[in-house]
Structures are given as C-alpha cells and as structure tokens.
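#structure-requests
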Amino acid sequence: MLMVMVFAWIVPLSAAWANAPHNDTRDDSVEQVVMYHLESEAKPRSIHYLSWTPVRRLDNGRYKVTVRYRVMNRYQRSVLKKQIVIMDEAGAILKVMDCR
C-alpha cells in the first residue's frame, strides 16, 4: 500500500515541473525547441538561430512557434532552415514541419 501511495505522489509532482512553451526574454528562443535541435541535427554545434516568432496557443490547447536557423549539414554545407514546431501544454514536441 505504501508503494502505491508513493507512486501517486511522484506523478503529479513530475507533471508540475514541466514548463509550458514560452519565449525566452533574452533572445526569444524556446527551450524545448533548442533541446530538440541539439538532439536531432547532424552538427548541433553549428546551429545559429536567426529568428523566432512569439509562441502562440492554438484552439486545441497546443502551442506553435516558427523558427529560422542556419546549420551545417553532413556534407559541410550551410543550410538555411525554417520550421513550424507544434508542442503540447507540457512543452513536448508533437510535430515539426519544414517550410520553404
């Protein structure tokens, strides 16, 4: 019984630690998107962010942000990327769409 009670307390606390997506006051970046790019890009150290749109809350409770950045690809060429990122209320990345 004690083990069940401990588990019941852990779940709500971990959910409370999740941050809703928001723009950083210093550079308008979004922490969840930056972390996603660091994990998914071939050369994460070469990322240079150019612009961020304000995070918008959509009607379905999800969040949307558009980001433009320059990064080196696997062939050592600089590539300009523009992405629309959809996140849930806890900041988890649900969908990333490349734009031209």
